[in-house]
Structure formats: C-alpha cells, structure tokens
Write a structure and sequence with these properties.
Chain lengths: 685, 200
C-alpha cells in the first residue's frame, strides 16, 4: 500500500491551560469553559462535544467566573471588570469596571434581568442587564471580608454569599443581610486556619448547599439559618458545587480530584422522607477539580489537569451506548501546527509566541517499524514573541517558508522570512491593508503570492503579498449572510479554489480565478471539523464532528459517486464511535485516491480505490493484514487504513517527498509539568 | 510578682488622724519630692507617723502614670509617622519634578507632550520631553493580593502537596501492568518550586 518515512516530532512543548470556570446554557446546549490564561472556549454538546469557538485570552486577564444570560456570555475576573463576550466575532465585546477590586464570582438571576458580582472589598454589586450593555444598579450591604461565591435563590429575592468563615444571606430587594451562617473550621491543626466557603448553591426549597476549604459539604436551612447536615467529603478543599436542573442531585468537586454526588432521595424505598444522601464518587481527574456543571444527563468537570471530563449519569442515559461513555477532552479540536510543505518547516502556535522549526533529516532505508538514524537534528529557526498583551488566535506559514503571519483579537502581523545560508532574517511587513484588521483563520496560497484571512460575517479577505506593502485584492462574501465566524480555511494546490467553513455548519467554495462565490455545499447538521481539496481531482473532502465523511465535486457541484456509496454503506461503527474529531485532511501527491486524515489517537489513509469496509468486519485490520500472505491481503483489504502507532497526535502532514510529519504530544509530558497534586496516602506504597 | 508591674511610685504618706488628736492635719505630700517631705518633716513633729496612703489611691496613681507613659509613647510614634509621611510626600513631589529632565534624550527632536504640571513643580527649561512611566497601579496590586490568596490557600503551607512524579509513579505501581517509578526526560520537570506551582 505504501511505505512512508515518518518524522516523529516531539519538540512541540504544547501546554494546555487549567480549567478555571464553566457555565452551561441548557437551551443552546453550549458549554463555556474559561481557562487560567483567560481564554474562553465554547463546546457544542449537541454536536458530539465539538470545540466550536475559542476566544483567546490576554496577559493579566484572568476569568474567575462565567455566566450565561440567555444567549449572552459574561465573565469576570481578578482584574475587577465584567466582560461580555462577542460570540460572533470571538472577542470581548466590552468590559465594565465594577470598582470593587478583584471579582471572585458572577451570577445571573433566573429572570435574566440582574447580574450579581462578588468582590474583594466585601460588596455584592448588582448590575442591570440591558440590551447592549450592563449598568451598575446598587451595592448590597457591605461585608467585612471578600465575597468568594454567590448563588441566587430561583425566585430572585434572596442571594447567598460564601465568604470566609461564614455564609451571608441577602435580601435582594432591600440589600440588607438577613442571616449569617457560621461555618465551622477544620479540626485539629486547621482550627487556626480560616475556612473559605468556595462555593454555594441556593435551592428553591431554601436549602443552601455549601462547599468549603475544610473539605465539608454542608446543607443549611435558609429560612432559619441553621445547619441541617454536614458531610465531610475530603481532607482537602471542596472547590466547586453544581446542582441539576430539577434540584435532585448536587455534585461537589474537590482538590483531591474526586467528584462526589449527593442525591435527594429517601434512604428507604417507598417512604417519602427524602434527604440528601451521598451516592456516587467519580475519580476522573488527577489534579484539583475547580469547575463543575450538572447537565440533565451528565456531570461535566474540569480543573488543574486541563482535561474536560463529561461523565454521563447512568440512571439518565441508556447503558452501554455511545451516549453513556465517559468523554475526556484533553487536546484542542483545531490545529496549532502549520507545515510549510515545500521547505520542510513547522510552525508551532503558542498563546504568547510562535516557533518555527526546520525538520531534521535521516538517512538510509529500513523496514516498517524501524527507527532511522538522524543525520541532521531538527533545529529551531525562529522564536517570535507576540506584540502587545493579547494572545495569538491563529497563525500560518507559507508553503515556501518565506512568509509568517499571526492574528490576535486586535490585529494581524505579517513577517517576511529570509533564508540566506545559515542566517534567518525576519522583517515585519509594516503596510497592511485596513481590511486586514483581525482574522479568525489564516491561510497562504500554495504559490505564496496571496494571503487569505477569514474575517467577520464569514467573509474572506484576499491580500496580495509583497515585502513592502500588501494590497487588498478582494473580499469574498457568502450569500447566506451568516454572522458566525469561519473556523476552517483551505485553498487548493492549483490556486483555483478556496473553501471556508463556519460554525453555522456552512461550507462555501470560492473560485479564485474569478474572485467570486462558486457554490455552497449542502448544509449537513453537524459542524465540519476538517476540510481539504484534492489537488488532482478538485474534490472537496469534509469530515464532521459526528465523524461523517463527505466528498463533493467542485466541478460538478454535487456529491461524488464514492461519497454516495459511502453514505449508502454507512461508516463503520468503530469509526463513528471515535471520540476525538479529525483535525486535518491532507492528500498524497503521488496517489490521488488517497485521503490522509488524523485525529488525536490515530492516523488514517482512506484509499478510494479499495472496497469500503463492512460493519461486521473489523475496522482496524492493518496488523492482521500484515500477517497474511500477499494474495489473501488484497482480498481482505478495505479502504480505511488506520495506524495507531503515533499518539497523541496534534498534527499530521504529508510532505512533497512522501514523508509523513507526525507531531506528537504525549500526555505524560503534559501531566509532568502541571501544578502539584495533593499527596494521597495509598495503602502499600 | 505583681510588684514588677508597678512603676516606681513616689512614696508618700498621708494620714487621717482621728479628730480627737491634736495638731493641725497635714495635707498629702505632692509628688513626694524629698524637699517637700523634708518640709513636711520639718513642720510636723518627729514622733508623728508618716502619712498613710490608701491602696486604692496609690493604685490609681500608678495606673495613671503608666497610662501617661503609654500615651506619650503613642503620641511620639504618631508624630514620627507623620514626619515620615510628610518626608515621603516631599520626595514624591521632588521625584515627579526631577523625572522630567531625565527622560529619553533621543526623543527630544520629535513631538513633545503637553502636560499640566501643578504649580509646586519646577517649570521645564530647554529641550525636554515627557514620557509616562508604566507604573504598577493599585488595581494590579489588588489583583496580585487576590492571586496570592488563592495560591496560598491551595498550594501554600498546610496544603499537603506532592509532586507529579510521585503521582505518576504511584499510578505505575498500582496499575494493571505494574512498572517502575517514572523518570522524567528532563530533570527539572514537575519540580516542586514556587514558580512551577502557580495555578495559572
């Protein structure tokens, strides 16, 4: 079938950022995740948990809490400001200073009219939510001590605030503090240490649930202000609480990396005396759990180990189905690596800088599985720090390796790279057209003459490259008028076609010779995660979040014969059950029937000349085929050739010289550089 | 003993002689100076008993003098603080005025900034331009305090933390395929240092 020399790249020191806060919007089924570096990510729970959007953070911008108000997303952090995010342009829409010092928590009432923030100076500030902005209304009675957590009573009349050593209940109308619930400190040595109430939840029957730094989950009666029940859950802190929509289940996340569930049930079957009973314990993390969300069917947790874990509750979903499996999202769903195919260079995107590396060279030949000796080691050519405070949103390097570009929320910067002998020179191109103000995706044409930048309203700006001054050539616009951002861009090798995909699941194809819209691919219900244009056949291949694969002929403006056959047969169940999306599609210049794709755990070459696999035959058959004699092999081969030798893959490209570049980032390398976990004494260690 | 809490009290006696005794009643000696006592002694006869002071009186007097001493100390401290504050303010003022002449000389050909200076500052003479120094505002200071709070609560003393190496090694030893402890490729990975335990 083919032998490839593989460049196994492990020098991309990608470090994800810890999850700090989460908020779920049940109506749109979107989960917003705030990371420690200030980035906000949106996951679509209705579309196989696809990471739809990423809003990059900025230096010094922390997000301590997130809150949905209808379709609007608000965040607040230690810089003392409340930010509303623009989810169409993927940037902060505006920030309002609260003037209360660092903000620890933000919460909206169930009516969606008021936003309450808990501040360092001990005030709970109320903001009115208006159409275009939020407006400060008033402060509640000022307290001595910082407000760490807040929860509205569903009626909107009361607010519970978790502070240090106590919980305060405020009357939202008058602003007065009505009750003070004193939280007991830890026993023994921790008696002298103040107890911090990290999280509170106010239920509609006026029960208040609190999680504190002494490791207790306590249930209080909000009417009388008395303690009903205490559960000592851990020796360390209880950092997060979440309650289900129907208030029958509460989950608590701890520093010990476990998530504990409490359910409001009766201890004896048949009786009606419901009480809060500790039921399940989930151990899906290795480090502190700092954020929790309780959806209707699952518990979503995230924390210092940077992984997003979705644990479906087995009493809400059908057992042993795709729906009931545990999901761990550890890697981004978009590519952070760009490969300059002709020059053999790799561009790595970090939040604060870019790195350009030259691939190494090996010599000799070997058999499958051999490691070849390295003749020349890979070397880092450029380390480019970004200008300003904003983090890098997207970047690209041209195939010839002569141009480098990156974009932040505030602007785009283009650089010319000169290679002469052993010296590398980087010069910034200062004159850029005004239309290139910000970009969601960037892409160079294969002849390095043009730069394509995805801009607002799903449009694409075409810029002619010139070392001195780049001129705006054209703005390609879709007819649909979608306001959603473009998250995928690809250009064909012959420079004739450009395809763009947005988060409204639309894929548009533009004719670059005529500079106008060529066609729009029929909209499929799942969002595309990778697109590619075959250089020989000019067929557009799209892979979607639900793992469906389509091939669309650009000449005929219809799905190809092969694609129809694939849809008729249906994709193999093992293929459909994969839980990471395909992040990149590339093609084999020597064999137009090959489609090379990869996700985090596998590399797959789809050979369109071979028969499609049947559902009852195993999908992963490469090992088995190798053991068969030649004649048998060709009878049993099918189109999907999957290799799982490389993990965890961040990128996979095929260079012009038939060598594969696999950029791996082993999970162990990430875990080893995380902050310290708690010390747990295990029996017999 | 309780005696050491009492400042040396001037010893004075005052006696209330019963009415049937003859002789003028002498008032209590003021402050108890030797000369006064001497005076008293001169005036009263030799065989009269020294004046008695009640316990209550001497206690209140001792307390009063102690309070006075504390008051003086506190007043002095405040005066010192006030003096220091005034000096600091003066330095700040001087710094603002002195900073102006010492900015980037290379900039002096380009456009100069217009700044409203308070009358107490020196006026700028010659080719000087003004550049704003990016200083740490109080907002970032508060942010730092808040971050330090989280850091110390989660990773500070008493938080019982271990290293990632130990966590992974334990997983290796208790896992299904038991293997040796984890040896990191780079020696400084996962080191328990204040820099590496920042949660952000």
């Amino acid at each position: 079938m083919g032998e490839f020399t593989v460049h196994r790249v492990r020098f991309f020191d990608y470090m994800p950022s810890a999850i700090r806060a989460m908020a779920f919007n049940p109506r749109t089924e979107r989960l917003a995740v705030a990371r420690a570096d200030g980035a906000v990510e949106i996951f679509n729970f209705a579309d196989n948990y696809f990471q739809e959007k990423v809003i990059p953070g900025r230096d010094g911008g922390t997000v301590e809490a997130l809150c949905w108000v209808g379709p609007r997303l608000f965040g607040a952090g230690l810089n003392g400001a409340i930010t509303e995010y623009d989810l169409e342009n993927l940037r902060p829409r505006y920030s309002v200073e609260a003037y209360g010092g660092p903000i620890w928590t933000v919460s909206g009432d169930s009516a969606g009219t008021m936003l309450a923030v808990g501040c360092e100076d001990g005030t709970v500030k109320m903001f009115e939510i208006l159409d275009e902005t939020i407006r400060f209304q008033r402060n509640l009675e000022r307290q001595k001590g910082r407000i760490i957590s807040l929860s509205w009573h569903p009626s909107g009349a009361l607010i519970a605030a978790g502070m240090i050593d106590m919980i305060r209940i405020f009357d939202a109308e008058t602003g007065r503090a009505t009750h003070r619930l004193l939280v007991e400190r830890g026993a023994g040595a921790s008696k002298s240490r103040e107890v911090v109430v990290w999280s509170v939840v106010f239920l509609s029957d006026h029960t208040i649930v609190s999680g504190d730094s002494a490791g207790k989950v306590q249930f209080w009666d909000g009417h009388t202000g008395t303690l009903v029940r205490t559960h000592l859950v851990t020796k360390w802190d209880v950092l997060a609480l979440a309650v289900s929509q129907d208030e029958s289940s509460v989950v608590a996340g701890t520093s010990e990396s476990i998530v504990v569930q409490f359910q409001f049930i009766s201890s004896t079957v048949g009786r009606q005396d419901n009480e809060w009973v500790r039921t399940r314990t989930f151990k899906n993390h290795s480090h502190d759990v700092r954020a929790l969300v309780h959806t209707e069917t699952a518990v979503v947790s995230g924390g210092m180990d940077t992984q997003l874990v979705v644990r479906p509750l087995l009493d809400k979903v059908e057992k042993n189905t795709q729906e009931s499996s545990l999901r761990k999202i550890a890697f981004p769903h978009r590519s952070l690596v760009c490969c300059a195919k002709k020059a053999g260079l790799l561009l790595f995107q970090f939040p604060e800088h870019l790195e350009l590396w030259r691939l190494g060279e090996s010599e000799g030949h070997g058999r499958a599985g051999d490691s070849l000796p390295v003749k020349r080691k890979p070397e880092k050519l450029i380390h480019l720090k970004r200008k300003g405070d904003d983090h890098i949103r997207c970047s690209a390097v041209s195939p010839c390796g002569g141009w480098l570009v990156y974009a932040t929320v505030s602007g785009v910067r283009l650089y010319r790279i000169q290679h002469d002998n052993n010296n590398i020179g980087v010069t910034k191109v200062s004159k850029l057209p005004k239309s290139l103000c910000s970009a969601h995706q960037l892409c160079f044409s294969s002849d390095s003459s043009k730069l394509f930048a995805a801009s607002g309203l799903s449009s694409v700006v075409v810029v002619a490259l010139d070392p001195l001054e780049c001129k705006h050539l054209h703005t390609l616009r879709p007819k649909s008028g979608s306001r959603q951002p473009v998250h995928l861009l690809c250009v064909s090798d012959d420079g004739k076609w450009l395809a763009s995909a947005n988060t409204d699941c639309e894929v548009h194809v533009y004719n670059l010779k005529k500079m106008k819209l060529h066609c729009k691919v029929p909209v499929y219900s799942s969002c595309p995660t990778a697109i590619g244009i075959n250089p020989v056949t000019s067929n557009l291949v799209t892979v979607h979040a639900d793992q469906q694969v389509f091939e669309f002929s650009l000449q005929q403006k219809e799905y190809t014969e092969w694609s129809r056959r694939l849809q008729q047969r249906g994709l193999h169940p093992v293929w459909l059950q994969r839980d990471t999306p395909v992040a990149h599609i590339t093609f084999n210049p020597r064999n137009p029937a090959h489609i090379v794709l990869h996700d985090v755990f596998m590399l797959c070459i789809i050979d369109q000349s071979l028969p499609l696999p049947e559902a009852r035959t195993p999908l992963l058959n490469q090992m088995m085929l190798r053991s068969l004699p030649e004649a048998e092999r060709s009878r049993q081969s099918h189109a999907f050739k999957i290799c799982k030798s490389f993990q965890h893959l961040l990128s996979m490209t095929l260079l012009d010289d038939q060598s594969l570049v696999a950029v791996e980032r082993p999970l162990l390398d990430i875990v080893s550089q995380l902050p310290a976990p708690v010390r747990q004494k295990k029996f017999a260690t | 003993t309780a005696a050491r809490w009492f400042l040396p009290v001037p010893w004075s006696y005052s006696t209330q002689r019963p009415s049937h005794c003859s002789g003028a009643r002498q008032g209590p000696a003021a402050g108890g100076e030797a000369s006064d006592l001497g005076g008293l002694l001169l005036e009263s006869s030799d065989d009269e008993a020294p004046e008695e002071v009640t316990f209550e009186d001497s206690k209140t007097q001792a307390l009063r003098s102690m309070k006075d001493a504390l008051d003086t100390v506190r007043r002095e401290k405040e005066q010192l603080k006030e003096k220091r504050r005034r000096r600091q303010e003066l330095f700040q003022e001087q710094k603002v005025c002195v900073l102006a002449p010492s900015t980037d000389q290379s900039d002096h050909k380009t456009n100069s900034f217009r700044v409203n200076w308070t009358p107490s500052c020196f006026s700028l003479k010659g080719n000087y331009t003004v550049a704003t120094v990016k200083e740490r505002s109080s907002a970032t200071f508060q942010q730092q305090v808040a971050q330090d709070f989280i850091q110390s609560r989660l990773y500070g003393p008493g938080s019982c933390r271990t290293t990632n190496n130990e966590l992974l090694s334990l997983q290796n030893k208790k896992g299904r395929n038991q293997s040796a402890a984890v040896q990191f490729v780079k020696k400084d990975w996962g080191e328990f240092s204040p820099k590496s335990v920042r949660p952000c």
